[in-house]
Protein: rRNA cytosine-C5-methyltransferase
Amino acid sequence: MADPRKGGKRSQGNQPKSGGKPPKPRAAVDPARAAAYDVLFAVRVEGAYTNLALPQLLKKYELSGRDAAFTTELVSGTIRRQGTYDAIIAACAARPLTKIEAKVLDALRLGTHQLLAMRVPPHAAISSTVDLVRGRVGQGPAGFSNAVLRRIGEKSLDEWIRLLAPTKAHEFAAFAHSHPRWVVDALAEALSATKPADMPAELDALLAADNAAPRVMLVARPGLSTVAELEAAGGVATGRSPYAVELGGGDPSLIPAVAEGRAGVQDEGSQLVALALAGAPLEGRDELWLDLCSGPGGKTALLAAIAAERGATVLANERQHHRAQLVARGTRASSAGLAGVVTGDGLRPAWAPETFDRILVDAPCSGLGALRRRPEARWRKTAGEIEELLPLQRALLATALDSVRPGGVVVYATCSPVLAETTGVVDAVIGARDDVVLERTEQLWPHRDNTDAMFLAVLRRG
Structure:
């Protein structure tokens, strides 16, 4: 097919009937952009998750290689920068967004990202978007879209930001980096706890990292695969997690070790959380571990592989049955280190107190540490949702501390740096007990560590 960066091929239309006026030629919709448009529709209308909808539509449109990469960047970048783009579109349309048909707005967002953030020639970005609107919505909106995009293309992204952004620091950062203001405030508060030397620059770097495509990181599950095997498949070892290999390109599912479950796709921060649990020193019995909130199972699979080499096993608990099934499927290759996968409420444990030697609490959280990986999350989350999660997070950690034996280790982790979900939960729980010692905490950051913003705390039962 034609290179999507250059726009789709134009159809010659139907041949005119004898004596009649030839119909207006209809432009073919470029498949790469059509797939991107359908993902945006699914996210907006159906509440779909980008990482789930995108692979399905790449398959539907038979896109691979450069075309699939183009569509992936077009979708993810458009959704990440939606807040900034919407303000630019509104300024160039000279009307509020509520007066623009949602289907047209989806296409305008895609066109804006191509014009301002991708290496797509302006004529291709505009003409292909107009073709998309004409094919999916109609001729009238196509003319409107053409006019708006031409105005947008008159300035660079930096010029639009300087022209339209508010002047106050956090409001400017929210606009320039396309984050809701409350998210910027929460991330800034968490970052300030690390006492950075240059807070404005650190915050800018963090927000910019949220808008960058994440690296594809693989994990070589010990006893099943090796870093060398994944390096031979095109990866490069990172050195921080002894099992982490960065894949520079290509489809990871085509790597035999990944396809067979001996290796997996797993952010390095997630690997480090599992290693914090497995690596904590322990005296006495070390036979039975628990992953209290195990879905979808990446950390469970790594823990089970490590446990198997030590003669231990991991029980995976997950409250939602469909997620428990994901854990079961994802840990088949690690079954030697798996005590089982159960569907159960972590707040009403089916096991006796002090049963386990090591417990991981990968608690449900806001997910604000993985905004680069989940582009739609920043527009769906609310500050109120965090408040609603806090009682659950505290209760799960308390359950884990009751379920671990004296001398045993609990790791509490979130894919969020928000202080209320991290140190706030840990402090509240251990402040109400006299049998727990906090041994260490660690906060990872995408702009510092090239990982999701994972938080972990290592606690020991007295």
Observations:
- The two ends are 65 Å apart (CA to CA).
- The chain has four domains: 27-157, 165-210, 216-265, 268-461.
